[in-house]
Amino acid sequence: MRFLKDLKIESHIPECAFVLAVATLLLLAELSTSSYAQVAYYALTAGDEVIALVRSEDEAGEAIEKAEHHYVSDEAEDVSVSAEPSIAVEQKQYGILTAPRAASTDDAAKKIIKNAESSDPDVQIRTTETITEPRSIDFDTVEKESDELIEDAVAVSSAGVKGEEMVTRSVMTLNGEEISSEEIDSEVVSEPEPEVILTGTRKDDQEDSAENAGSAARAFHVERNSDGKTFHGDLSGKEMGQKVAEYALNFVGNPYVWGGESLEKGADCSGFTLAVYKHFGINLPHNANTQRNYGAGYTLATARAGDLICYDGHIGIYIGNNQIVHAMNEQNGMTVSTIGYNHKTILGVRRFFD
Known about the structure:
This protein is of the alpha+beta class. It has 8 helices and 20 strands.
């Protein structure tokens, strides 16, 4: 220390600091301009625009592939993808001090997609692919005359069922937006089943058969409403529903017969409702679950006399006061029960008269 003091270096510290700083700057400048201080990047460019920088040529290719296949559907076949203009990959050198931060493969792909979807894109991605998808086939409506319905009454004999086909299309998209589509093949998977509409031809002065008439008067004149599912008759909707309930009660005590449709000799649950509504000019299919698709739907809170109360595999007619009349089973026959008998779950309420 005494030696340093003797040399009087302490008095030259500012000059030494200055020299050191200049030397450091010169060294850094040399490093930034020398060949061994350069950092190589791979630029993804569209025209003159650099969209992203990655570390390697492999990463550049992977980013482009991810971006181009971003719009390809999972179920697509025969896929062709292209960027317009093509995304070029070129190597760029940056000094160690001025080198930017490289993007990951995923981030580079996202930047390409973001550019393509911008209002003024430098690149757009076009895809052409073959897609096979299901498509429904509408059913036809067939009208038939029926002498079992009174004249001008209309009823749905069987509900239409839509079919299905598998359709193959060649689809072209631009940045994910479909710009053209051409159907190239189709194959029917299931044929549609027609809706059958019956129009009554029986004259008003023809009496119902004794078997179906019971102690009630003959069927009322009814016509189908514009919705195709509900009807209007000689009385108001509420009054017509009440007549249905009163008519159905005439057959309490008669037997339950599996597959039967006779209100006197025996019927099952859907045969019972079928026969009751047939008396009023409305034809229903002999199936409880299918009958659930007829008429108009209502909530249990708004149920009124004459409505169908639908269960899973069973059906009855509401008569009011939380009760139904129905063909219950072989033990009980045609009877009156509470609406939730045997803890059955109610699936729907259907009404025919508005």
